[in-house]
Amino acid sequence: MSCSDPRMLSRGMFLYSNSPEYNIIRFMEQARNWLQSATSVVALTGAGISAESGIPTFRSPGGLWKQYKPEELATPQAFAKDPRLVWEWYDWRRTVIAKAEPNPGHRALAELERAKPNFTLITQNVDGLHERAGSRRILKLHGDIWRFKCSDCGRDWPDRRTPLPKLPPHCGCGAIARPGVVWFGEPLGEVWAEAEHAVRESEVLLVAGTSAVVYPAASLAPIAKSAGARVIEINPEETPLSGHVDISLRGPAGELLPQLVGHAPGLP
What we know:
Blueprint: E1 7-8, E2 14-15, H1 21-37, E3 40-45, H2 47-51, H3 76-81, H4 83-98, H5 104-115, E4 118-123, H6 129-133, E5 138-140, E6 143-150, E7 156-158, E8 177-181, H7 190-201, E9 204-208, H8 220-226, E10 230-235, E11 247-250, H9 253-261
Parallel strand pairs: 3-4, 3-9, 4-5, 9-10, 10-11
Antiparallel strand pairs: 1-2, 6-7, 6-8
């Protein structure tokens, strides 16, 4: 079956990849109609939407720092062994992120939130670009790089300084602070239950810029689908999720999200 042709999948699902223009218009219009009629909408975003703002993903060539892979630094074990090294990496990441700006995809989701009273944004990203774009109802699955947490007393506080004046930073109690993010091997905590509840209650789930290989986040779309939601994927490339959604749109989130959201009720 040619990838230039629309494909009918199981249970009446449609998919296109690099389709002729008339098919692109058809599927975009269908996705807009679902968004327009839905009262409950959830968006799930991954590293791809931030990559469009110039932030390297863990899996991109720019994801390496010095000779280290992210998986070698973003762990409790790495932090216990060498907290300064881990903090040098996070200080570098924070500096890169601080120079980035929200792109049209981030801003489109903020507009969608204003148009839909029952809207939830679930993000795997820790960079804060959604907040800077104006989103407020956000569930951060993997935490926030702009927050610190004490490794001893548990105090949690914001800190947006770049670069940090001292590495590793310390809490007022004297203990070393850690980044306010979820590391490999750590549980997501209460935010996961909130995310799962949101997708179960949604009528439409938008999945933008995620590779669909990082669990448990990758299970949210199947959960939404099993609960009856329409699932729309936006990604430049095919993912393991693509064959199991209602519509899979090929392209950057910064280009396609504004086209989808710009036709939602209450938006210009």
